Amino acid sequence: MIQVVMDFKMPGKVYGTAMSSIATAHMLIATGSADVQVRLCDIASGAFTHTLSGHRDGVMSLEWSTSSEWILMTGGCDGAIRFWDIRRAGCFCVLDQSRSQLGRRPPFSQGTPKRVLEDFIASTVSTGKSSFEKTPVSQKRMPVGNGKKQLTTSRKNQNVSGGPSTQRLHPGMSSSHNRATAHYGAVTGLRATSDGMYLLSSGSDSRLRLWDIESGCNTLVNFEAMRLQTSKAIQLAAFQDSSLVFVPSMASVKAYDMWSGTNLGTFRGHYELVNCCYFNLQDQELYTGSNDRQILVWSPSIPAVTVMEEDDKKGQTLSTDRDNWSD
């Protein structure tokens, strides 16, 4: 029987929690609530160990870095995305949507070729009575950035990986940088790529943005039109190589190519708002949860050839048994 073994009293409604998947030196759970402060709960001691102050409104989304166990990224209802090194006081980076550069477009990895992604999109079925709608590829031209990495100040040399820096400038020393926003409205979701190089964010402004973590710049990927929830955090999901991202969009889930922003398709099956999704790499399945109290499982359908081969094998087995046990 499952029992509660630890209880942390929060100052307001809890919007989200996050725990590092690579941490070995700590057992911290980052929590965001209606309160402006981010609290870190230590499940080893049962106490709060850190309080991170900087947001001017509630904290709706949290994500740990996938390359450093000390780096935490938070998104607030104030539209800001802040980077924290929990070993030091204050945040060391605030993303600004006006700072942009043309993002890199890495090729598909050998482990997950483009054909696999297309097959998953084209043949996905759910365990419920659901359908998948293929979306035609848009012919929109991608916006081109200036290709330059801008620095907000000549005295700053940020290092998101948590390594040593020549001189780290606290945003409190630069009021304009401290007030920067990543979205017009609340930041409702965050998802870091598996290599720790990029961060995907969603906002109540119905925008999806891809950030270069090293430079802190918006990569200007133009994600095709979507509608996102405005008052609740959503959970994004991505393939292991981060080439495909799944985004809850009202009562459906949209699949996008992360590097081009192309909408590859829409998963329809829920009857109410979808709040979260998770991709299971091992079983190649997508799980989605909605306000309709249903959890749908989406998986590629088994090819007809495979089914026929399995039926033939079963038939051969039965024939062998009959021969062995015949009079």
Automatic annotation (TrEMBL):
InterPro entries attached to this UniProt entry: Rad28/ERCC8/Ckn1/ATCSA-1, WD40/YVTN_repeat-like_dom_sf, WD40_PAC1, WD40_repeat_CS, WD40_repeat_dom_sf, WD40_rpt
Domain of life: Eukaryota
Ranges of Polar residues composition bias in the record: 149-178
Gene Ontology BP, a term: protein polyubiquitination
Record's keyword terms, sorted: DNA damage, DNA repair, Repeat, WD repeat
Coiled-coil residue windows: none
Region (Disordered): 130-178
GO annotation, cellular component aspect: Cul4A-RING E3 ubiquitin ligase complex; nucleotide-excision repair complex
WD repeat extents: 52-87, 180-221, 267-299
One Pfam family per UniProt: WD40
SMART domains with a match to the protein in the record: WD40 (SM00320)
Protein name: DNA excision repair protein ERCC-8-like isoform X10
Gene from which this protein is expressed: LOC109710145
